[in-house]
Amino acid sequence: MAVVSEDDFHYSSNSTYRTASSSLRADQEALLEKLLDHPPPGLQRPKDRFSGTYIIFFSLGIGGLLPWNFFVTAKEYWIFKLHNCSIPATREKPEDSDILNYFESYLAVASTVPSVLCLMANFLLVNRVPIHVRVLASLVVMLAIFVVMTVLVKVDTSSWTHGFFAVIIICMVILSGASTIFNSSVLGMTGSFPMRNSQALISGTT
């Protein structure tokens, strides 16, 4: 019968546990080295040539927050579009002033609420809808919203300021939901890749 030395036990304030013996550690290290030198066919790790996978995940991280950045950084554009040019500034309606003064707050609400709801929906659909469908569908929706916003740049909205504001909020709700599904799906996909790619995705979002 093997005799266990007291040196193999570690004591803490509320528990006592036994560390692996030196022979056991040596066996584990030898087995690990053997697996690393000759991994089974199912454990073969493909090489990331020219850091292509890293660059792709970094680009996906940038694209995840790019729609929100476009909305919040174009402050002068929103002021110009939401200001009713057909009405002098001295006769401006209180509703128009409210839209201009609290426009960023409206955007924040229109972005946060759909994000939470779509995050929950993505959690429920993760095993029902394939990841490539979720990613491609969200990208198509974001592209369609960008097309609509680009067209509205050339449209005179001075006669329908409130309607334009409603269109912007609706677009923001849809865009925020699609962006959340895209980001959460891609982040879940990185679990099948090495940690380096997860770092690339996080670096792209920041």
Automatic annotation (TrEMBL):
| Statement: the UniProt record of this protein carries the keyword Membrane | yes
Q: What keywords sit in the KW lines?
A: Membrane, Transmembrane, Transmembrane helix, Transport
What the entry lists under InterPro entries is as follows: Eqnu_transpt (IPR002259)
Compartments reported by the entry:
Membrane
A Gene Ontology MF term for this entry?
nucleoside transmembrane transporter activity
Q: What is this entry's stated membrane topology?
A: Multi-pass membrane protein
Which ranges does the record mark as transmembrane? 54-72, 106-126, 133-152, 164-187
Q: What is its main location?
A: membrane
GO cellular-component terms in the record? Golgi apparatus; plasma membrane
Family, per the entry? Belongs to the SLC29A/ENT transporter (TC 2.A.57) family.
- This chain belongs to the protein called Solute carrier family 29 member 3
The organism of origin for this protein = Equus asinus (Donkey)
